[in-house]
Amino acid sequence: MIRSELIQKIADENPHLYQRDVERIVNTIFEEITGAMSRGDRVELRGFGAFSVKQRDARVGRNPRTGETVHVEEKHVPFFKTGKLLRDRLNGND
Questions:
Q1: Residues 32 and 49 reside in one and the same domain
Q2: Which family is it part of (predicted)?
Q3: Band (56; pLDDT cuts 50, 70, 90)
């Protein structure tokens, strides 16, 4: 599902809301999650999962095409851990 499909589904299920308002709500939620993660905070949505940021240390890697060594700098990457309810639902344990 992509963002526009999510907005359309929410708008269809809530006919009392204008689509532009639903779009603003969805965008605000994503902006808040992104903002919190960029500050290094953890975002937990109960029953769904938790978003956090992990730090990857600098390392020496290899260029797969040439085989030469390449320095890979330290970086921060997003990490998602599923919640128990989502895991159970995915595995058919409703």
A1: no
A2: Belongs to the bacterial histone-like protein family.
A3: very high
